Amino acid sequence: MSSGVGVYLAQLAWMIPLTAGFCVLEYLYPAAIRPTWRNRLENCVYLALVLPLVLGLQASFDPLFNYIAHVADSGWNGRSSALSRTLPGGILATIAYALIWDVWHYWIHRWQHASPFLWETHKFHHSDPMMNATTQGRRHLLDYLLNLICHVPLLLLLGSLNPIALVGVLMFRLWGFVNHANLRVSFGVLAGVISGPQWHRIHHSTLPQHRSKNFATFFPFIDKLFGTYYAPAAGEYPPTGLLDEPLESFACSAAHSPLVVWYRCAQRFVADRRGQRKWISLRDS
Ligand SMILES: [Zn+2]
User: Mean pLDDT across the stretch 7-19?
Assistant: First the structure.
């Protein structure tokens, strides 16, 4: 068996039981309307199909990432990498990594919402009208590509500094399920410190008062810092989906929709004889 197939099967091996576990929890303690089986199935089948492409994309970036990490570690990052090999240093390095990662991705995420061009890479993720744990895998391939490209400055800053493996799995695997879960749970006093299902649901809300709120992946206080924080009231679990965008089929959104929109906008851009060259999103048409 090739290593690529092995990695793919290993990813499925932990994702399938995790998906099933969240499915049971969401059935028992739903926050809002229960997702249909078709909704869950579409998200799961999509993830199973797109995952080999995502893994291939990541593998194609590996030589560049290894080179950048090597270059960065020969500078000041080398000292912090050595520090992270001790236990206290590793804990500190993990906290630093998680914070810096989340601040950086906060801005990438906010940029995706602010720019009509980049919104096309992220719209598919927001298009789920029944957000649940399987929504974490509903990301367009171009979304992954953008995040890989935007990882380069982070690598230059952090070198090979990485979170402790266990925390890394928690951060980058489990938390996607937690954040998107259709679960009526409260984090209590930790609600303003750690992102959870209710807090992230506000970000996916269709209600106008929730627009452009709660961008952080792990730490809500980053939103507080940059003025986009929204504290949900007790029992506030809004409907999710796109606010004012034309509905498209799942297959169309998952496959070529961003490319079609960009092509149409490029045509308008070229056809504009008055020189008012501004990106016009599909929302304006
Ligand atoms: Zn978003």
Answer: 89
- pLDDT score of 192 more than 90: no
141 C-alpha to ligand 1 centroid (Å): 15
Q: Which tokens in the block code for residue 199?
A: 């807090």
Average pLDDT, the chain: 85
What pLDDT score does 284 carry?
Answer: 47
Separation of CA 168 and ligand 1 centre (Å): 21
Confidence band for 212, pLDDT divided at 50, 70 and 90: very high
Query: Ligand 1 centroid to 155 CA: how many Å?
Result: 23
CA 215 to ligand 1 center in whole angstroms? 7
> Which of the given ranges, 152-161, 181-190, 225-234, 266-275, has the highest pLDDT on average?
225-234
